Amino acid sequence: MSSAHHSHAPGYRALRWNMDWITRPLFGLALAAVAIGVLFLAPPFFATLVVAISIVAAREWHRIVGKGRAYRAETALTALTVALSVTALLVTRHAWIAFLVLAAGSGLAWARAQNRDPHPLWQAAGALYLGLPALALTALRAFEPRGALIIVGMFLIVWATDTGALIFGNLIGGPRMAPVLSPSKTWAGTIGGSVTASLVFAAYIWFLGGTPGTAALFALFFSIAAHGGDLLESFVKRRFGTKDSGAMIPGHGGVLDRMDSTLGASVVLALLVFLGGLNPLFGVAG
After folding, report:
1. Beta carbons of 138 and 47 less than 8 angstroms apart
2. How many Cα neighbours within 13 Å face the side chain of 193?
């Protein structure tokens, strides 16, 4: 088979029926309903959900970088670090204290893995990879007056990006974007995902009474963060020879497989809001 054929996805001609067509949207909708339902409760409830998801993701992360071996101590340390950093942020309302907790936990994980694992830096990276998004989501919900609406908007961009990329990539096929890194990702899917995110987010802002044109342009570019989160996890899995992070969520794989785009997008959004002064509701009245 030629290299040119390898560099192109076949598109709709290769589609075959499988149960993922049912389980993926069903479980995706169920998870979305839970996330949004908890989001509109008090911030500590949402923070608790974020921490709970991070704990499950910590196990997947350490199994990936440990090539299937269960690094229980490192997993527990990463989970505890994320939980303590989120708690510190909520209690003290000082981000620098939460960052210190993350740095300390990451350092301890590195020291613990020094004599047990050939990749101690990857073991240490788990606390940052999961902790920074956890802090970003918690801060957006707790410290922004309309944080729940902002996070819903981010979720819509991420979910629309992922869904659009899946649909357009499978239907159109064509040149693969990064065949070595993520063989299933095509340029058609990437562009289709960004356009889908732009339309969905514009509709959301229009529904809330904001400026849909500006929102559409923002989502078009912000979807790059979602694509980036997906590619980052693909890189890590490819680096350690793993196809899926787990099998907990039918049709999606593991928690990290479902959350990879959100991990990247949440950190970028928090930086734009808290450091860049962005109002991601684009004219929605308070």
Report:
1. yes
2. 27
